[in-house]
Amino acid sequence: MQLEHYIGELLYRYSCITVPEFGSFLTHYRSAQLQNHTFYPPSKAISFNAQLTSNDGLLVKHIAETEGLSYEEALINVKKVVLSWKDSLQQEEKLVLKNIGLLWPNKEGSIQFQPFTDKNYLPDAFGLSTFTSPEVTRELLKEEVVLLEEKTPLLFTPEKRMRKRSYLKYAAILLLSVSVGTVAYQSVRMEQQKKQLQMAEQEAQQQLQKTIQQATFFDAAPVDLPSITLKATRKPLYYVVAGAFREEENAEKKMKELTTKGYSPERLEPTKYGLHQVAFGSYTSARNAINFLHKVKATEAPEAWLLVSEN
Q: Which of these three, 83, 100, 131, is where a domain ends?
């Protein structure tokens, strides 16, 4: 199974794709750039976090629906691929994931990641490609004309030479006219492309505010429970969940415990399975939420997870 193919399909729609028991591929918006006469359109920059390994069900569910398998069968196939990936990395081999990036272990045993840039996973940048604008060659053409005139053989009378110089003068004027016209055309084209780029960036920012990734992180592979989607009625949209309780009384105890420790806990709406969830807090920024999740898992609650709600 080409697991990287399914990861690539999800990278177009989501900002975090977790491979169970392996790590997560994260994306963030990167603005358009102009470097050394080369234009780079806006895109999604890909990074890898080996600490986010809890199965959120997103990748496995997508594979199961695409290949017509049950969730358990798809999860088993994913685990087989992950075992082969880990075996390659343990043997200090480089792992190439097509259209995604290159993974390899460093001397300390940590996994390093280098993303490939030939694939743009930003849907709003569809149709925009990298191109290079040639440098202005006006002075070079003038120098070529002067050198050509100096190297002309003196096998004619002075009168003919004057006529020849006249021809060269006209040729130089023609070449300069063509060059100036080319530069003017390129300037107009660059101005139009800048305007199109600004419009594309504005549309991408607006679309980004409307598109929220739906994913629930668990510490264990979900068997009886599918992915949970919270229908929130207000922002912020990212919740760092401390626990989910069958009894509401236990949820209240957790709220008091977190309040005593200095947190500002929140009670979420009960799920359709009757679970009462308690969150450490909520965020409108995915990056801030993930950073807090790492901190709280390391110092307070290893079982905490990230819940992303819908608009």
A: 131
